[in-house]
Design goal:
alpha+beta, globular, 45% helix, Four Helix Bundle (Hemerythrin (Met), subunit A), two-stranded antiparallel sheet, 260 residues
Length: 260
């Protein structure tokens, strides 16, 4: 079982180290419009927001106090402050304590722990790429959970107002180092959100709880490579693809749409 609190602490510490010791003007390859300073401000805002949500067990995100971006020289210190506050917040409350979440299946401290550990991991990788630094090892269990999160929370699931139409293709993603496997059917998501009025007609997939007997394509790699590929932080050269290569491109397209 993944210790998300320890993971959050570890990934945030590495991120802070890079912010303190690197050129904040460096570009962030996965986020072409950002410098390392922009990345530092982004994760500071994210951790401050969730530190407030978790620390005060807020039910309304509108109650979060907003902060102003400081001069670049102060970003490292501000990040450290809010990273510590977030860690305190998710440690101080029980996992089942309730708080706001954008995920209809979230709404607890346990959900915040998981989401923020994964957020810190991905942006730690971004910071290492910006700094030209060697990658610290990624815990395979944390990476496998990251694959599960992006597939099930970000990419899969159909709201009541939408429809998912399978197109006959399917995929299995296999983490060769941890033994995890995720099966999904590919198709198209359509519908109009009653909340925003936005109409959707886009590529999609739906993860199945039961294995599919004969999938169209199998994508295999170490859990960390799968996780970073889905998040657009690693290219497909780290993958072994058996079946239709176009399915891997399709899955990555859906991941990009789902995490904008």
């Amino acid at each position: 079982m993944v210790d998300f609190v320890s993971a959050l602490q570890r990934e945030s510490a590495r991120f802070g180290e890079l912010v303190h010791n690197s050129d904040l003007g460096s570009g962030v390859p996965p986020c072409p419009d950002w410098t390392l300073a922009d990345l530092a401000w982004h994760l500071t805002e994210v951790q401050q927001f969730w530190g407030e949500i978790a620390g005060r067990l807020l039910a309304d995100p509108g109650d979060v106090a907003r902060i102003a971006r400081p001069d670049d020289a102060e970003l490292g210190g501000l990040f450290d402050t809010h990273a510590a506050a977030l860690l305190d917040a998710v440690t101080r409350h029980a996992p089942d304590a309730e708080c706001w979440s954008w995920d209809p299946h979230g709404g607890t401290i346990a959900w915040v722990r998981r989401r923020q550990a994964q957020e810190a991991l991905v942006h730690r990788i971004d910071a290492e790429l910006a700094a030209g630094a060697a990658h610290d090892p990624i815990d395979p269990g944390l990476a496998a959970d990251g694959v599960d999160e992006i597939l099930r929370v970000m990419m899969s699931g159909v709201p009541k107002w939408g429809d998912f139409t399978p197109d006959g293709r399917s995929v299995a993603l296999v983490a060769v180092d941890t033994g995890h496997r995720w099966d999904a059917v590919l198709g198209r998501f359509t519908g109009t959100s009653p909340n925003t009025g936005t109409t959707y007609d886009e590529e999609s997939l739906d993860v199945t709880d039961d294995p599919i007997d004969e999938v169209t394509t199998t994508i295999s790699a170490a859990a960390a490579d799968l996780d970073l590929w889905l998040w657009g932080r690693r290219d497909a050269r780290s993958l072994t693809i058996a079946g239709e290569p176009s399915v891997a491109d399709y899955v990555r397209t859906v991941a990009a749409l789902s995490t904008q």
